[in-house]
């Protein structure tokens, strides 16, 4: 036994020695992240959250999810992440189960199994729940076909958090000691909305959790209820419910304003004065009520002579965190007694009758009964106020009210949807929860504004840096292409006359011929003719005989460039062509004439002859061309008259 333990220790040391430096660094990083995630979210420091954020953004599987989102949002989501450690052979999730967690593997490895026939009996389900270790190969085969393995940095469980009604598509089993980073559905939805560019507001879970009806509920119960609620958006001036229509739902107002009104019948006389208001009765199979003769007269006027008109009596106004349409589920009513109209664009969470029965009617637990009682108290308070408002309109038909419905609701002791108080209505400024919610909304708005400003500053900084680099490149190119007077003089001195160019060509040819002859051991055949050497020799310019030695003012300046310039052989050119501009013109003319003559050249001999001819033509003075008589244009009017005369003559 001792020998076996020693062998295991030696193997561990041997394996530890085989771990390379990068692998050891990854292991150290994983241990650091595990220590951070073991803490509660509120106990983590900003530096620790930055480490988690850095790991998530550098991981290739989660980088796409977090890319393009503000760092403030990403870090707040990283703060909500939790750690889950699972020993080898642990089933993380079963195929067909419902889940609300997105898993990121921090360290370790898992295997995925898919069973195409997922139909288990209750006995098998109980055995599956009681089984803990799944290291046995036979037991793992019962999960289905092996798909693949996922190592450190991998993710799974995205579908379960995207769709609350979706089920796990495979069974996940750990192969070794594995650590997971867990992300709840609420945080994951905030992350997805941030990726899609939507505004970060309450999630369904946070909204339900803030309602005072569910203050005593556990986290799992609230999560189960919020997953079953269906979001719905109603545009302005649209109806959620109409009087007399069948109803099977209750609405939790997420945002917007909803107006509740009761349909009434107004009876007016011939002068347009309202005599009486009556409620619109529901259609029933009962026989009509027989009215006594004395009841058929109202203020001396027969009821049959009064004009009838249907109107809507506003009874209540509901805002965010309010509940409306509760009678259908609380009192099992099949038809609506009121109209619910959206004053603005309204977002609601719909609780249908099936959800109500599943959550509130099956499990008769204490916190569920308490929530039902709160709903009933709220509905009874609203019914009392509704009956009071209808009674006021019925008994005082000509009463002109100068007070708003919201102000009347304050005195009716209706319940606040934020805190459950009877002293104020929902959304009142005196509600502490409303004040706190507005403060938090202001903080979120300020953070969003700061993040937007930082993003704009970063974009502007990038643009300015790019413009600066482009300008620097332009300045460098401009500095390289600047031409000074010194450069012009150098270029001017490098231009050669036709004879000088011919002499240089002969020299190059003779030098190459000499190199070839030395290499082959023969005598060079091509040499510069002596006649050409003599022809291109520069004659000494005649000295001006002036007793007073009267020079132009430019000779008084000493030019260093003239001392270092190499003397070139003189040309036999006219004196009026010895200036610099004349040389340039001659060179240009020489090139143009030579190019025209070289179009039909077939050999070197012809090329040399053409060059000599062009040079001779340049040395000879240009013959003045005879003057030609300028062409005078004819008078167009005279031409038209002649053409007309010719036409007339031809016709005759």
Automatic annotation (TrEMBL):
Q: Where is this region: Disordered?
A: 617-652
The residues covered by the Cyclic nucleotide-binding domain are: 65-192, 213-259, 322-361
What PROSITE patterns has UniProt attached to this entry?
CNMP_BINDING_1, CNMP_BINDING_3
Q: Which InterPro entries match?
A: cNMP-bd_CS, cNMP-bd_dom, cNMP-bd_dom_sf, RmlC-like_jellyroll
Q: Give the protein name, as stated in the record.
A: Cyclic nucleotide-binding domain-containing protein
Record organism = Thraustotheca clavata
């Amino acid at each position: 036994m001792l020998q076996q333990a020693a062998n295991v220790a030696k193997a561990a040391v041997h394996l530890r020695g085989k771990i390379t430096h990068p692998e050891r660094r990854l292991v150290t990083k994983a241990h650091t992240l595990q220590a951070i995630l073991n803490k509660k979210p509120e106990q983590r420091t900003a530096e620790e959250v930055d480490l988690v954020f850095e790991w998530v953004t550098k991981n290739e599987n989660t980088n796409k999810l977090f890319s393009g989102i503000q760092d403030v949002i990403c870090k707040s989501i990283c703060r909500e992440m939790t750690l889950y450690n699972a020993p080898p052979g642990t089933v993380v999730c079963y195929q067909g189960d419902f889940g609300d967690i997105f898993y990121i593997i921090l360290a370790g490895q898992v295997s995925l199994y898919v069973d195409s026939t997922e139909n288990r009996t209750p006995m098998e389900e109980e055995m599956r729940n009681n089984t803990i270790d799944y290291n046995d190969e036979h037991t793992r085969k019962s999960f289905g076909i092996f798909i693949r393995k996922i190592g450190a940095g991998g993710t799974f469980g995205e579908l379960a958090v995207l769709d609350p009604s979706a089920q796990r598509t495979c069974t996940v089993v750990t192969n070794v000691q594995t650590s997971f980073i867990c992300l709840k559905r609420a945080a994951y939805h905030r992350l997805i909305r941030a990726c899609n560019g939507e505004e970060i507001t309450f999630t369904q879970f946070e909204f339900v959790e803030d309602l005072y009806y569910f203050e005593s509920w556990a986290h799992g119960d609230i999560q189960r209820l919020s997953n079953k609620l269906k979001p719905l958006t109603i545009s302005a001036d649209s109806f959620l419910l109409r009087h007399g229509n069948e109803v099977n739902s209750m609405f939790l107002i997420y945002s917007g304003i909803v107006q509740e009104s009761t349909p009434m019948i107004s009876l007016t006389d011939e002068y347009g004065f309202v005599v009486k208001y009556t409620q619109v009765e529901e259609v029933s199979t009962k026989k009509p009520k027989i009215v006594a003769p004395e009841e058929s007269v109202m203020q001396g006027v027969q009821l049959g002579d009064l004009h009838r008109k249907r109107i809507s009596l506003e009874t209540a106004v509901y805002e965010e965190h309010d509940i409306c349409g509760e009678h259908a589920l609380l009192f099992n009513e099949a038809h609506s007694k009121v109209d619910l109209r959206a004053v603005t664009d309204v977002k609601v969470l719909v609780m249908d009758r099936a959800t109500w029965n599943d959550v509130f009617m099956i499990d008769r637990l204490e916190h569920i009964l308490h929530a039902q009682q709160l709903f009933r108290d709220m509905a009874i308070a609203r019914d009392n106020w509704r009956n009071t408002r209808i009674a006021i309109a019925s008994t005082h038909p000509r009463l002109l009210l100068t007070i708003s419905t919201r102000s009347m609701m304050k005195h009716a002791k209706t319940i606040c949807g934020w805190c459950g108080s009877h002293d104020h209505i929902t959304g009142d400024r005196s509600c502490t929860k409303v004040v706190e919610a507005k403060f938090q909304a202001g903080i979120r708005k300020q953070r969003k504004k700061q993040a937007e400003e930082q993003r704009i500053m970063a974009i502007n900084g990038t643009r300015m840096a790019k413009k600066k680099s482009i300008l620097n490149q332009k300045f460098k190119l401009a500095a390289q292409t600047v031409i000074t007077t010194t450069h012009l003089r150098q270029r001017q001195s490098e231009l050669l006359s036709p004879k000088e160019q011919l002499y240089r060509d002969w020299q190059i040819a003779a030098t190459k011929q000499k190199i070839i002859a030395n290499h082959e051991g023969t005598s060079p055949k091509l040499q510069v003719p002596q006649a050409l050497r003599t022809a291109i020799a520069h004659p000494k310019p005649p000295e001006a005989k002036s007793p007073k030695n009267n020079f132009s003012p430019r000779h008084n300046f000493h030019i260093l460039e003239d001392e270092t310039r190499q003397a070139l052989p003189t040309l036999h050119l006219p004196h009026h062509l010895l200036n610099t501009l004349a040389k340039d013109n001659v060179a240009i003319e020489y090139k143009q004439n030579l190019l025209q003559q070289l179009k039909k050249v077939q050999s070197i001999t012809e090329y040399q002859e053409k060059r000599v001819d062009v040079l001779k033509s340049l040395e000879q003075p240009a013959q003045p061309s005879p003057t030609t008589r300028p062409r005078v244009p004819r008078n167009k009017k005279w031409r038209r008259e002649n053409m007309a005369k010719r036409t007339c003559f031809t016709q005759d």
